[in-house]
Structures are given as C-alpha cells and as structure tokens.
Amino acid sequence: MELWYTEEHSENVRFSIKVDEQLYSAQSPFQRIDVFSSKEFGKFFTLDGLMMVTEKDEFIYHDMIVHVPMAVNPKIEKVLVIGAGDGGTVRELTRYETIKHIDMVEIDKMVVDVCIKYLPQTACKLDDKRVNLLFEDGLKFVRTKVNEYDLIIVDSTDPFGPGEGLFTKEFYGNCFNALKEDGILVNQHETPYYESYAKSMQRAHKRINEFFPVCRVYQAHIPTYPSGHWLFGFASKKYDPVKDLNAENWNKLGLKTKYYNTDLHTGAFALPNYVIDLLKASHE
C-alpha cells in the first residue's frame, strides 16, 4: 500500500509527496500537527494539512527571511521573531555574533516541542543563551512594545487559523511602533500565483505600506510551497534593501549559506511584471 501526503494548492490543483511513514499526529489547542518521513524531502512538518517545512528545502526559506535584512543592517542587535516554531529562523539568526538578544514568540508550545524532537536540523539553536522563548499570542505581545527592536521577523502560518491576527492593520501598526527609528520588518508574503494566496499577499502589502516609508517585496523559489514561487515583504523606517545592501561587510563574515548570496539578494527584488501589477493594484 502506498501512502501519499496531498495538499490542495487551489480548488483545482493538488500537490502530493509519497510518504514512507507518519511519525507524529496530534491536535494541539490551536491546530493539527503532523510529521511525516519521505524519500524525496526527508522529514516534513504540516499544520492543519498545510506544509510548513521539509528537511530538503527549508534552507531556502530560512536563508531568505534572515540574511536579507541582516545584510542590509549588520548592526542589528535585538530581534523579535513571531511564529517560527520550527526554529529555523532562530538557527540562522544565532549565526551572527553581533546579535545580543532574540525574543521568539510562538503561540503553540506543542509545535516547538514536536520540532525539537523530530526536526533537530531546524530546532537546534532554540537553547542558545540569547534566545528568549515565549509561548503567547504574537499580536498581543507586540502591542506593548515601543522603540525596542532593530528587526522583527514575522514567520507566521497562512492568514487563517491561529495566524490570522498576524495579517491585520493593527498588527503591522504595532510592529512599526515596536521598531527603533531604523527598524526593519520582514514577513513571509505568500505566493502571487494562485488567486486566493495572491489576495492575501495584496492585503498584507497594502497594510504594511500604510505604515512604512520603505516597502519592498522579494522572491525565492521554494519547491514544496504552493506554486514554488514565494514572496517575502521587506519594510523599513530607513533602509532600502537594495541601495543599502552592505555586501562587502556581509561577505566578510564568511557565513556558509546554501541559497543566499549578495548577488542573489539584489536580484530577488527584481520581480516579474504580473507580481508588480498585483502590488500596484493593492494600492488602488
């Protein structure tokens, strides 16, 4: 008997991976958590039936959500990470000796516990002494913060279920207030390819653009996410992600990455016309 994990990318499109074994399945107070093993992608982790991370391609997402802002402002010392229960974002941040403190706010403790057990590849740095793990609602947490962080990374699930509040106008306004005067906000921005995801992307982009003077979008190819074409948002009070890229300084750090490099950094902000049109339409 063959077992397959299947995810609906749209009403008319499904994506399947052949499964060797289901390693874990449980319902947390917030969502269903599943871990599978497969030949092609290694172990992978889903929430409410949606792909979150695979051992094979997680490096692409985590490289792009972390190293892009870090290469723009190498002086970042205090970071807030919202979501990111698999630990991959924190893993990449801890590679920077200049970072002094990381607050990671994840609503679902069970997600972190499961990833520590089954995905040590991504969760391996959650015990770093600079990391402060907080199990609470990111929307509520950020409300009380003012002028506190150099960087906020919103590594959330999709804009429904427990992650829904992280896509609201109130949330992005609170993030703006929580950032210092040269602060950067980076978030996963969905895919522009399928209509329902594209609408979520437009909505988030419009709301972020209402607060931040610099608001740009960049892209990466992540094979196991819907369409493979994935966007990230870069918003800042001061820095332009291309003009202010500090390539020489970043390259001097000698960090070994599998996806990110400073040439790719610049190219990632060059978007296809259909994405440019979607972003323009979000302002209308």
Task: Name the descriptors.
single chain; 4-stranded antiparallel β-sheet; 7-stranded mixed β-sheet; about 280 residues; alpha/beta
Characterization of this structure:
With 284 residues, this protein is α/β, with parallel strands linked by helices. 31% of the residues lie in helices and 31% in strands. It contains ten helices and 13 strands. It has helices spanning 58-72, 88-93, 109-118, 120-123, 138-143, 169-178, 195-209, 247-252, 262-268, 273-282; strands spanning 3-10, 13-19, 21-27, 32-38, 42-47, 50-54, 78-83, 101-105, 131-134, 149-155, 179-188, 214-221, 229-236. The protein has a seven-stranded mixed β-sheet with strand order 9-8-7-10-11-13-12, with helices on both faces. The chain has a four-stranded antiparallel β-sheet with strand order 3-4-5-6, with helices on one face. Helix 7 (195-209) crosses helix 10 (273-282). It is globular and about 55 Å long. The N and C termini lie far apart (52 Å). The mean pLDDT is 94.
